[in-house]
């Protein structure tokens, strides 16, 4: 028997409960994986609360993890028992000690990337790769704005964009987070609780604005992000931590020939070649020191509710991961 966190109803963290589950033999194209580290993300909180109704109930939440292949199903090539793998999935099921997994989404982990590190960075890192290299390809000399620059994805965006030669402006909520953002590569940091973000961006850029604004906050920052754009600037909205964005007039984009996208990372990794290319880019950036990451703060799998409490209260000092107990 394996242990899994089952979600049977939407609600607060207390609805996450550990249950014993049976994991069968892998079918064609599947792997049986013993999971050693499981990532915890805001997406999981949105699924648990019911903000996202994308997991049929009852179901096992979780969208990223790492572990070791135990058994390989028919018609699977290039993977063997004992291989270390990581994955991200829009199909859920990661909050479990063992699971069946489509072999097509399993990524071999290079030496130097532990399973705990993979579970801490894979989703955030692939998201950053998508945002900087696919959605808006950042070029040397460009200026970009990153909201929540001290957050998990924000820090990766700042590090990677600075490495690519961009000038990075970050927004944060405190002086302590400002130091984190500067260490991550922000040339300028705006304390959004104390300063007018649009006015500061215009002052920093001499009135020009930014080539791209990366906004994972949503409702509270959307209008400001749009106002910060230069001619032909690109607003990349990739999250809604403050709530969904109300409908707006598309004609507003015409004022400066701006563009707007709302990318989802799972749509960018649906085919195997794209997934492998993005993972190679991420692992290469890690190996080159373009981005740095730390293994997450670990809690037992059975304490998934506690992990959600820490994440939602902003008390976590590092990425959170869940560890199945032997």
TrEMBL record:
Does the keyword field hold Transit peptide? no
An example Gene Ontology molecular-function term: mRNA 3'-UTR AU-rich region binding
Domain annotation Enoyl reductase (ER): ranges = 11-322
Keyword annotations for this protein?
Answer: NADP, Oxidoreductase
Under the heading InterPro entries, the entry gives:
ADH-like_C, ADH-like_N, ER, GroES-like_sf, NAD(P)-bd_dom_sf, QOR-like
Q: Does the keyword Kinase apply?
A: no
Q: Which Pfam families match?
A: ADH_N, ADH_zinc_N
Q: Gene Ontology terms, cellular component aspect?
A: cytosol
- Listed name of the protein: Quinone oxidoreductase
Q: What is the lineage of its organism?
A: Bacteria, Pseudomonadati, Pseudomonadota, Alphaproteobacteria, Acetobacterales
